[in-house]
């Protein structure tokens, strides 16, 4: 067993274990922390496959920025809100579990059976990727692809980001008369209305 | 580059994606549902990186960036909407927001 296999085994166990722990954690903060663990483990698998820059971005942006945003909102809303155990739809949980297992079986079949057929077409690109990582370097090669073939989608993402910023600013703006326009509704009042 | 076969990475991605689907369907807290969606996007990123390695070019790794940008935009707007809903009705439970349901 080489070091790469060992690292993959550790990443596999950590990612899968923390994803399963996410399902059972009651506290939203614990769910967020397990998600960070899963994302760090996924960054390891990126490193193993020669995607160095993507691994760094995964840690900085996903495990760093986005998860801090999530934790910020969880803290803002209060961490002590436990999830309601009432189920409006009966059998939703077992049904979701069964359908999820079915989905997992389907994708796993594709991943295991289809990959052999696919690799006869693609071959093993590890050598080519290694050469790219060695000669211009991962970041430089990535920049060349991103700013030539994918320039238009890249510009489109900037439009998307601007739209997101404007949208959030509109949503978060506190108008002075917000309570007059849309009064606060408590769940009890809402039940009365309904 | 590792000698671990690509299919093992795809198996990991498939399992993570399925767990994300089950979590998004079963949990009740809107923020937690969002976290499971992030988990699914991460699993897809792993698939992209694995395919990039199989083909031996960097297109898959570039696509990861686009997924990342979309995930960031979605998280920001979604969390703002959740904040507004919570400010209005003091609960992040998705079952409480059912005024439009038949």
Q: Spell out the helices and strands of chain A N to C.
A: HHHHHHHH
Query: Shape of chain B, please?
Result: elongated
How far is it from the N-terminal to the C-terminal residue of chain A, by CA?
64 Å
Classify the oligomer. Answer: heterodimer
Structural class of chain A: mainly alpha
| Main sheet specs of chain A | none
Rg of chain A (CA only): 23 Å
Which regions of chain A are unreliable across 5 or more consecutive residues at pLDDT < 50? none
* Beta strand count of chain B: 0
What is the rounded Rg of chain B?
Answer: 17 Å
**Which chain pair has the greatest contact?**
A-B, 96 and 78 residues
Key attributes of the depicted protein:
heterodimer, A: 194 residues, mainly alpha, 8 helices, 79% helix, extended, B: 102 residues, Helix Hairpins, 76% helix, 0% strand
Explain this structure to me?
The complex is a heterodimer of chains A (194) and B (102). Chain A is mainly α and 194 residues long. Chain A contains eight helices and no strands. The model of chain A has no long low-confidence stretch (mean pLDDT 84). Chain B has 102 residues and is mostly helical. Chain B has helices at residues 6-26, 30-55, 59-89. Chain B has three helices and no strands. Chains A and B meet through helix 1, helix 2, helix 3, helix 4 and helix 5 of A and helix 1, helix 2 and helix 3 of B.
């Amino acid at each position: 067993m080489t070091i790469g296999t060992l690292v993959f085994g550790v990443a596999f166990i950590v990612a899968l274990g923390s994803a399963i722990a996410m399902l059972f954690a009651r506290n939203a903060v614990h769910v967020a922390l397990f998600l960070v663990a899963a994302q760090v483990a996924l960054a390891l698998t990126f490193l193993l496959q020669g995607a160095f820059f993507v691994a760094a971005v995964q840690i900085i942006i996903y495990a760093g920025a986005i998860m801090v945003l999530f934790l910020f909102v969880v803290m803002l809303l209060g961490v002590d809100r436990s999830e309601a155990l009432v189920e409006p739809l009966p059998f939703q949980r077992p049904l979701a579990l069964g359908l999820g297992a079915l989905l997992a079986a389907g994708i796993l079949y594709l991943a295991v059976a289809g990959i052999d057929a696919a690799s006869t077409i693609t071959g093993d690109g590890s050598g080519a990727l290694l050469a790219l990582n060695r000669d211009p370097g991962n970041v430089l090669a990535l920049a060349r692809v991103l700013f030539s073939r994918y320039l238009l989608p890249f510009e489109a993402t900037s439009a998307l980001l601007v739209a997101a910023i404007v949208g959030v600013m509109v949503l978060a703006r506190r108008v002075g008369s917000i309570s007059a326009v849309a009064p606060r509704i408590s769940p009890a009042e809402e039940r009365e209305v309904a | 580059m590792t000698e671990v076969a690509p299919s093992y990475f795809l198996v990991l991605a498939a399992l993570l994606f399925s767990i994300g689907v089950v979590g998004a369907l079963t949990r009740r807290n809107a923020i937690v549902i969002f976290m499971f969606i992030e988990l699914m996007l991460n699993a897809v990123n792993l698939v992209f990186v694995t395919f990039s390695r199989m083909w031996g070019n960097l297109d898959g790794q570039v696509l990861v960036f686009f997924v990342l940008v979309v995930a960031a935009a979605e998280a920001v707007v979604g969390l703002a909407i959740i904040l507004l809903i919570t400010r209005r009705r003091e609960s992040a439970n998705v079952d409480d927001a059912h005024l439009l349901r038949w």
